[in-house]
User: Which sequence fits this backbone?
């Protein structure tokens, strides 16, 4: 079984410690939700996992091989706070560009059907910078479903989505589970994150307060962690 | 085959971005025209001294318009972290780099053709057009070197908030041999000086190879952090 491992990850921004001794192992098919308040280090952790950012100390491994040097990086879909879209290009042009990079046939029904599923078909000829924030997020996510990679690293995937599309995206991400994917996501939306998780982790001031199987953590417990004053945690 | 295919896909995307956004080439063309007009007023250029001043004026325009344009193509990648869609794809860092070099090279060459044409019209200097076949090797190799290093440095500095200010300070000292080679070889050809141009063109070719090898290795590290 393939595994992604983080060993004693530390990340420092000048004097500030963003991550402080993170250890985690994610197995193929596992879905890990990382909860944490603003500034807990979730985004930094996801950037380190996906290889965008190098840790100050420690390493990320894929099957004991440095993640950044393994082929798996090319099979990673990272959705960050920004959309990784070309704003001046249209919805369809962005999709076609991605298809060319991944040698996917963009002339067939496949891309069109993904755009329809994500409610973007009507806006396919519009430049991305004319879309609403929620539409941009949907388009950014749609890219992941076109590529269909092995690793999904999603940072706040529900941000900017209205209730209808939040439910739709939730069910699409849910469908990924059990398909042999690695699913690592960070969110502060407890219900959605909990529903998607096999494992639940809570990050506070760059350290994991816990990583447990979902069955071992009650959703109320996670909510309480969010409501605890910072000093009571850890 | 895939290696070049990916680079061509990036080139196509950049051309499309330029058509849609008009952020790079259009700015370069506008600046080069503006600089030509400024030189026209600032220097007392006439039929007697135009050939001795031409190469210097032209390369100053190429350099400043080029820096502006290359800065913009890199900013387009950093905007919304769009370049991550290439980083997280089967495209190698080397293909990515070559794709960006090709698009910068294309935009620079278009800007240079435009500038040469307007220079010839503005200063009544048709000779520069008739000598174009002889000027072409120096112009192409100089522009290639300019693009090879510019792509690297513009991507490096675009990560910073002050990227467009930093770019000329970091980039110009490194690219001096290319500018020197371009100006001198062009000057020799335009002023019918005997010999020497070939040596400068060879020097440009050597620097291009060096810059290509070094930039190809370094680009990977720039996009990864």
Assistant:
């Amino acid at each position: 079984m393939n595994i992604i491992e983080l060993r004693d990850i530390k990340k420092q921004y000048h004097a500030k410690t963003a991550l402080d001794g993170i250890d985690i192992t994610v197995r193929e098919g596992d879905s890990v939700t990382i909860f944490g308040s603003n500034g807990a280090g979730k985004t930094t952790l996801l950037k380190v996992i996906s290889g965008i950012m190098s840790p100050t100390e420690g390493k990320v491994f894929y099957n004991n091989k440095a993640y950044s040097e393994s082929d798996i990086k090319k099979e990673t879909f990272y959705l960050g706070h920004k959309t990784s879209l070309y704003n001046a290009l249209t919805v369809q042009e962005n999709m076609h560009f991605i298809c060319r990079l991944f040698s996917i046939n963009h002339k067939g029904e496949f891309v069109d059907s993904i755009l329809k599923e994500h409610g973007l078909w009507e806006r396919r000829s519009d430049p991305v910078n004319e879309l609403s924030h929620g539409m941009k997020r949907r388009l950014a996510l749609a890219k992941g479903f076109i590529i269909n990679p092995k690793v999904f690293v999603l940072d706040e995937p529900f941000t900017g989505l209205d209730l209808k599309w939040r439910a739709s995206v939730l069910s699409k991400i849910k469908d990924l589970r059990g398909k042999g994917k690695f699913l690592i996501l960070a969110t502060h939306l407890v219900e959605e994150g909990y529903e998607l998780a096999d494992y639940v982790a809570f990050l506070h001031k760059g350290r994991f307060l816990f990583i447990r199987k979902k069955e071992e953590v009650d959703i109320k417990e996670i909510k309480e962690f969010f409501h605890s004053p910072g000093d009571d945690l850890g | 085959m895939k290696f070049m295919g990916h680079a061509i896909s990036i080139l196509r995307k950049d051309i499309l971005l330029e058509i849609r956004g008009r952020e790079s080439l259009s700015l370069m063309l506008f600046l080069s025209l503006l600089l030509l007009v400024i030189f026209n007023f600032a220097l007392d250029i006439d039929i007697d001294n135009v050939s001795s001043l031409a190469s210097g004026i032209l390369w100053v325009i190429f350099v400043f318009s080029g820096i502006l344009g290359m800065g913009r193509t890199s900013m387009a990648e950093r905007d919304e972290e769009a370049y991550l869609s290439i980083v997280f794809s089967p495209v190698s860092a080397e293909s990515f780099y070559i794709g960006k070099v090709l698009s910068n090279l294309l935009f620079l060459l278009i800007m240079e053709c435009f500038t040469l044409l307007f220079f010839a019209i503005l200063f009544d200097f048709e000779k520069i057009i008739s000598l174009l076949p002889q000027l072409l090797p120096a112009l192409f190799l100089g522009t290639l070197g300019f693009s090879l290093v510019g792509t690297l440095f513009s991507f490096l500095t675009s990560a910073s908030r002050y990227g467009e200010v930093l770019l000329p300070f970091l980039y110009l000292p490194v690219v001096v041999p290319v500018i020197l080679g371009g100006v001198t070889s062009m000057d020799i050809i335009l002023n019918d000086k005997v010999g020497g141009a070939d040596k400068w063109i060879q020097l440009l070719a050597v620097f291009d190879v060096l810059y290509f090898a070094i930039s190809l290795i370094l680009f990977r590290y720039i996009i990864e952090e």
Residues 2-224 of chain B form one domain. The radius of gyration of chain B is 18 Å.
